[in-house]
Structures are given as C-alpha cells and as structure tokens.
Design a protein that fits this description.
This protein has about 500 residues and is of the alpha+beta class. It contains 24 helices and 4 strands.
Length: about 500
C-alpha cells in the first residue's frame, strides 16, 4: 500500500461512483437534499486541491443528515486520498451500515480493505457486493484477487469459472475475466473469455484490445490455427504491446519466412512501440530463427540482419543500456564483423565498469594469435576461423556450508570481484546450492575460491567445466542468466473502473 498511483486509481474510481450516483438520485427534500448540496460543494473544493476545506464541509453534510450514507461515503474517499486509511475505512463502514444494500458503498469498503491488505475483511465485503449487484464485474474480479492473496486459489478460480458461465455480459465483464485468467496462467479460458469480449465490444478501441488479448492467449494455449485466423485483425489495430509481436514472431512465423519477420519489426517501429526491451526480445527471437535447423546461410544471414536492426533500435531508445551493445556485439561476431564487434564491446565496457566480461573480450581480440600455422590448424580440425582466441570456460560449481541463505547475494558479489572470474551467478538458491562461472582458464578458480571461502566461511568446488570458444557464446551465456524473466504476479492486474458520467 505504498504506491500513490494505486491510491489515485481507487480514489478516482470511487469518486466517479459517488458523482454518478448523485446524478441519478431523485430529488430529495429536507435534510438529505441539503447534504447533497454540501457534498457537491465539498467535491468541487476537493477537485481544486482544497482538501481540508472539503473535509470540513463534508462533516457539515454529515451533521445535517447523520443517517444519510452518501456524505460518509464521500468523506471516506477524501480521507483515503489524504492517506488517512483507518479513518477512511471507518467512514466506509458507516456508509455500509446506513445503506447495506447499496452496491457503491459495499464496493468502496471492499476495495479499501483489499488495497490495505486486509483480505479477511475484503472477501466478505466483495461477496456482499456480488450479492447486491450480481452484474458487477469489479466485485467478482476483486473477490478473486483477494482470495488468491489470502492463499485460496481454488476459491478464486471458482469465482472466475462462475463468471465464465454467464449467458450475457458486458465488454468489461468478459475482458477483465480474460485478463484475470491470463494472470493465473489459464490461457485456454482466457482466450474463450477474450473471444466473448470481442463479440461484446461496442467501440473499435474495445474490439482492438480484445482481439490483441485473444491472439496472445490463443498462442499461449497452443491453438495456433485459431490464432492465425485472428492475427491480421489484431495486428491491424496497431498494437503497442511488444508481446503481440513476440508471440506472433515466435509461434506463427516460420524460419523460412524472413519477409514476415521484417514486416513485424517494421510495424512495431511504425506504430511507435516504445519499449527498448521489446526490441531487444525481438532481436533475441530473430537470432533464434537464424539457427533453426534446415535453413540455408542466406536465410540465417537475413535473420541476423533483422536482429541487428532490432538491437540498434533498442539502443536508439535506451543508449545507456549495456546489454543492448553486448547483444549487438554477439551478432557482429556471428557475422564476422570483428571491428564492429570490438566497438560494441568497448561501448558496453564504458557503460558498466563493474562488468569484467566486455573488457576481457576486447583484450582477447587485441591479443589475437593470427599466425598462419595456427589458422591452418583450426581449419584442419574444423574449428570456425576467428580473429581471436578465448581462454574461457563455463564452470558449474557447488556451494556448501553457507550458514545463512541471506548471504547469497554477498557471495555472488564477492565471486564477481575475483581476478580471473569474468561472470558469476548463483543459479540454485535452495539447498543444495549451486552456481555458474565464466572463468579465464589461464588463472582458474583455485585462488579465487580460496579467497572467497575464507571471507565467507563457505566451501566451493567446481562440478563441471566446458570451454567457451566464441564471443557470441560468452555473451549469450551471460545475458540469458541476467534476464531470466519475471514471474507472474497477481497484483499486476489492470482493472478498469466502470465509466460513469460526472456531475
């Protein structure tokens, strides 16, 4: 409950509910009518950043009609906005007491408890909202999220499954159901809900969002025939989500279809895809296509050209990001462009002085053994000719007798500081602990391990060692470990609030 954006979203949603409720209330005589006028003035003051004046006026509204729910509901939002969360919840509870069958006040209380992490209180409040407002998608989605956060995943899935059985539903109902299923790694159900969202869409913007979600979830569910049917409509909506391009490229674009790959990259650039990491991931996928079995060298080179273009665009958007230069250097290594490769490695080294690998690779190129006899030997044994020789090895190692897992980050940091170790990562952070290294074989790990073992009171030993022969191989090894991908997080849900008219 620390993110101001989250607070603002809830506040805006609740205010919209309150304001819209006021527009549809019948003309009320006497005390409630007076309270309405005071609340309207208070909202105007609040919108003008006069929070305390708004709160004072809302107290007057409550005093004029103490048994009226609306002033308590409005005041709870003012308190919420002011980060007075306990007072906000207290006012929301009072509003529920005064109007127990009102959708707005029950949802207001449920959302506040959810945002505060009071899931045991949020769950019954959401259930009450569902009871009084069966068509409320917000209440059902909020209920499913709170159940998950409260370690009740089966109950959460059941809530979503009940939503999926609805005979009728609005766009928001089906679209948010699709998003929820997706976040819970249920792509088949997400696709089915997204398909219904497409049918329920009432605007081109809604249809576009639903088609994009449908395409992604069909691919995730491995329903590729259905995905091919909807891909053009989804892409024609000019999506700015890099996942669309990545999923289509990975699943629907064959290694022989470099033309389609170029179209996807060109479209991403044209529509203004602004994610540097999106272009980086596209570059990685282009490289994957370039090493697909049964494609010839011309196709492989065409994919590498696309990878280069993608990485260059990532650099254009984020010129201080080291990994983009490393990725581009790896492509140049495969293309045999040694001077370009060295330039990218040097740039990467200048951006991150703590990373030993780029400087080491540059030094290897500069100290290359270019004697003719050596090159002839390489050709005879079938080793690709390179204008450098690496003396790197990838070592797997075990970690024993570490007293506290809390020391893992320190251990990794200390290993990366040692002479001869160009990269180190703890890859298994549960016992038995393990990790990997890139090490200069001329120095080995013996002295480095002794130094770290003494400092950290731990035992380290190499369990497996393999040579690393190319710059491309070294870079890919490191980048893959540095970018393992983020886990799905239920709190990454984006829930739309119903669009209500303002007063």
């Amino acid at each position: 409950m620390t993110g101001p954006l989250l607070i603002d979203r809830v506040t805006r949603a609740a205010l919209c509910f309150v304001l819209s409720s006021m527009t549809v209330l019948p003309v009320i005589a006497g005390k409630t009518s007076s309270a309405d006028e005071l609340s309207k003035k208070a909202m105007s003051l609040f919108a003008a950043d006069k929070s305390q004046d708004a709160i004072d006026l809302e107290y007057q509204a409550i005093k004029s009609a103490p048994r009226y729910w609306l002033p308590h509901c409005v005041l709870s939002i003012f308190k919420w906005k002011g980060n007075l969360f306990d007072e906000a919840v207290a006012e929301a509870q009072e509003a529920v007491k005064l109007a127990p069958d009102n959708e707005l006040v029950n949802l207001n209380l449920a959302q506040m408890n959810q945002m505060l992490g009071y899931y045991e209180k949020a769950i019954p409040a959401f259930k009450k909202t569902v009871k009084v407002a069966p068509e409320s998608w917000s209440a059902r989605i909020g209920l499913s999220q709170s159940l998950i956060a409260n370690a009740q995943p089966a109950d959460a899935i059941e809530v979503l499954n009940q939503m999926s059985k609805a005979e009728n539903g609005t766009f928001n109902w089906w679209y948010n159901l699709a998003v929820s299923y997706s976040k819970l790694d249920k792509p088949k159900q997400a696709a089915d809900a997204a398909e219904k969202a497409v049918a329920a869409a009432t605007s081109s913007e809604q249809k576009s969002r639903a088609n994009i979600t449908l395409l992604i979830e069909l691919i995730r569910a491995n329903e590729l025939d259905r995905a091919r049917i909807v891909q053009n409509e989804a892409l024609n909506s000019k999506p700015k989500d890099d996942q669309v391009y990545l999923q289509v490229l990975s699943a629907l674009c064959t290694p022989a279809d470099t033309k389609r790959g170029k179209e996807l990259l060109d479209q991403a650039i044209t529509v203004g895809l602004a994610s540097p990491d999106g272009y980086y991931k596209l570059g990685l996928e282009f490289e994957n296509k370039s090493i697909a079995p049964a494609i010839d060298s011309s196709l492989s080179n065409a994919w590498l050209e696309l990878a280069e273009a993608a990485y260059r665009h990532a650099i254009k958007l984020a010129p201080a990001e080291e990994k983009f230069y490393l990725a581009l250097a790896a492509v140049f290594d495969r293309k045999g462009q040694t001077s370009d490769m060295t330039a990218m490695l040097s740039k990467a080294a200048s951006l991150n002085a703590s990373d030993a690998l780029p400087s080491y690779l540059v030094a290897c190129v500069k100290a290359a053994d270019n004697d003719l006899a050596g090159r002839l030997r390489e050709k005879l044994v079938g080793v690709p000719e390179k204008p450098y020789r690496l003396n790197l090895a990838r070592d797997d190692f075990s970690v024993e007798n570490l007293k506290c897992l809390c020391k893992l980050n320190v251990l990794e940091f200390e290993l990366n500081r040692q002479n001869g170790i160009k990269f180190a990562a703890i890859t298994k952070k549960e016992k038995p602990l393990a990790g990997v290294l890139l090490v200069d074989q001329s120095l080995g790990t013996e002295q480095a391990f002794k130094t770290v073992e003494k400092a950290q009171s731990v035992d380290l030993s190499v369990t497996k060692s393999e040579p690393v022969l190319t710059v491309n191989e070294a870079i890919k090894f490191v980048l893959n470990l540095r970018s393992p991908g983020a886990p799905t997080n239920v709190w990454s849900f984006e829930i739309d609030s119903p669009k209500m008219p303002l007063l």
